[in-house]
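Database export, one record per block. Field names are fixed; values are copied verbatim from the stored entry.
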Amino acid sequence: MLIEANELIDLYKDKKWKKNIVILDASWYLPNAKREPHKEFKNTHLPDALYFDIDEVSNTLSKLPHTIPTKKQFEFNMEKLGINNDSHIIIYSMDGIGTSPRAWWLFKLYKHKNISVLNGGMKAWQKLNGPVSNKITKIYKSTYIAEINHNIIAKYEDVRRSYDNNNFQIVDARSSERFLGIEEEPRPGLQKGHIPNSINIPFNLLINDQGYLINKSKIIETLNKYNFNFEKIIISSCGSGVTACVLAFALEFIGKKSWKVYDGSWSEWGKKGNTLIEI
């Protein structure tokens, strides 16, 4: 599930790689970041990569940001990208392991078999002087059939039923300042605070300063430090369901299989008028 930059460079050297490998740039930034990921992609990307727009591959009718697409919407977007069910998907983001796990989770949610995330993302690629391009790859429409895995997603009512259920543990991947209600939320109209009985493990603790996922022993050490319970079913939350997927990816990486991502996350739970808030 994790591919290193040197391994991907070796794949590029194999002329047969284009037959079943699809490389996706899934870079995304918070609204206040003032960066345009699609524009950055057009300027610089891995050769033959396609842009995976987290905001577009979503339920565009939802009032919440980039919530999961319906089965038909996901199939439409995959066919638009020329992706087949047997494609080996390799995902990266400009900031290392940042937003690529969100795309990984979407593919996993729709039971795609072969999905990898580039460890360190574009940073790792450029560190090895990997080739980059500004050419836009021609896409040939494909056929794709999706099937959802309900076991790895949590919705609002699921969280309401589980936050005081001893079988579950809710883990918030936002910064400690946002979790504690010290810092304003980047999206307007949201209260400050966190879901009752949740714990806070900021996602960036699972990534080193170069954008790589930390190793398995360090992940376990970090989780233990923050009172993570390995025996419970984990519901991962964040601001809008993006960095919650970093935690989910790390859990899957260390072999912890019983987890779900709260898709609406704080964008849904923290709406003004919702009284189920702790500060």
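Remark 1: The first helix runs from residue 5 to 13.
Remark 2: The longest strand covers residues 21-25.
End of record.
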